[in-house]
Amino acid sequence: MDLKEYLSNVENLVDKTLFRFLGDAPGDLNKASAHLLLAGGKRLRPALVMLAAGAIDKKAPDRIFPAALALEMTHTFTLVHDDIMDKDSLRRGVPTVHTIWDEATAILAGDVLYARAFDLICKATAEPAAQVRAVSMLANACAEICQGQSDDMSFEKRDDVSRGEYLEMVRKKTGALYAAAAGIGAILAGASPPQAEALYNLGMTTGIGFQIQDDLIDLLSSRDGSGKDRASDLRAGKQTLIAIVAREKGIDLAPYRKDLTDDEIDAIITELQDAGVIDEVKKIAHDLVVNAKKGLSVIPESEEKRLINEMVDFFVTRGF
Amino acid sequence: MDLKEYLSNVENLVDKTLFRFLGDAPGDLNKASAHLLLAGGKRLRPALVMLAAGAIDKKAPDRIFPAALALEMTHTFTLVHDDIMDKDSLRRGVPTVHTIWDEATAILAGDVLYARAFDLICKATAEPAAQVRAVSMLANACAEICQGQSDDMSFEKRDDVSRGEYLEMVRKKTGALYAAAAGIGAILAGASPPQAEALYNLGMTTGIGFQIQDDLIDLLSSRDGSGKDRASDLRAGKQTLIAIVAREKGIDLAPYRKDLTDDEIDAIITELQDAGVIDEVKKIAHDLVVNAKKGLSVIPESEEKRLINEMVDFFVTRGF
């Protein structure tokens, strides 16, 4: 099986299961909780839970599937709350929860998903001691994500964020949950501590790479390519790794914090490419992934391990 | 030891522990998370965790103390989020989190406490299988609290809420967490399923009684008695059990949804007393508590059981 087929299978399974359980839940709060969860998504965190579990024990993915859903619930709860904070009105092509209902309902909808995530870890079939470790790992990831979002918001008021500060923020905001996805899958499948640590670290570094690639996609994608507005980070003056590396090379992107035409955006991209900014940012993501893969030497060879390696490459090369 | 002394000991222990761990945490988000937690509170849910654990195994309270803190974290997270939704500016005599910082920080501060709660359950010393049951119980309580808060807010737009609807809302909004407090204490201490169920049910019914008493205190307390504004529920037109029982007896409180003088409030109280509304509401709370205590026959006699019975009485007789 190739990665594309594997990811598509997980996506279908997650979609089907979520729809079966949440598709016709009664009441405003249940509908608000289910809204973004049922709006699609690539389901990459559940896929990483399943692959990490399968790399430890081929038969584990089926029995720990609720934990894969738990990671998607967690991811979705953070999106619902982030959308309130960032006042975003569109996500995954549908209006955000607080736009359709209101902020109070969106806060509660996120809180309900948060609760369901922890309950789902308990519903996985695994050693109880492993479940406790998984719960603790998920809880710590959630606390880190909150700190990452807080740091990200505070960066909006600054124009001097360093490369180290940015990477630390992304480690928390994006890396922590991918780390937990791989770590929880491994732990519930019965991984030894070094194996669980290796997969946790792989999730962490590739999660960071994933976010860097997201920033590149935001800048480089053509109109309608990513489903988002083009170069939204640039127009919002976000302190992405691109902006930071550009500043290190003497290019100040702050003046572009405004509405930009497609021609202006194209000109900025060309300037950044000519200065080697894009290549350097790509190299940072690439190096993270190379290191992540090296750490997997404690995991025996298997189809799942091969797919994990493919997935890690996909994270920093994907165009959407 | 009498109940007052016991509660005071738990309050001191909780305060001291929270202050030690959170008193000087750096950064805005940590300070915002710790703010309401360190502002005091009666710490009744931790006390119930400890008493329920002690009623099962005298030595258990020490080793499961982190779970007592977990219940206080959970309670506080719901208050921080509720204060945003209800736009309240004061709580426990201090400005609310979203008032000092902003709504985004308050959402995240609540989310951090939410995460810490689940991590603390994992830090209790108990059988792993018991910890998993405790995590699941806490998660389900959290989901119920959200539904209760959602129902409570939806009641604000109605003037025909029935007694059954009100009690179901309170069961979720307040009962569920007291039920989880007693249930989790019992489970982590090694209770048998019937014992855990008895303590869970006791927490549920007395939690409902606690909320009914809260409504009575809001109406009946003299100025500055509860630290809140007097008769705030009446002035806000809240569908409390008092308003519902009054309506059943032909007294419509809706016209009092406005600013009221102390003399007007006194007159309304007299009218409600003369019509037997206050006595009937008190009887509902009293009956809940009598039933709750009956269910404890599966718990062996002990000082802890005696204190639980005292606590349950205190819940529906307290004046603050």
TrEMBL record, chains A, B:
Keywords associated with the record: Magnesium, Metal-binding, Transferase
Obligatory cofactor(s): Mg(2+)
GO molecular function annotations of the record: metal ion binding; prenyltransferase activity
InterPro entries: Isoprenoid_synthase_dom_sf (IPR008949), Polyprenyl_synt (IPR000092), Polyprenyl_synt_CS (IPR033749)
Domain of life: Archaea
Single GO BP term: isoprenoid biosynthetic process
Similarity-based family: Belongs to the FPP/GGPP synthase family.
PANTHER family: GERANYLGERANYL PYROPHOSPHATE SYNTHASE, SHORT CHAIN ISOPRENYL DIPHOSPHATE SYNTHASE
Protein name in the entry: Phosphoesterase
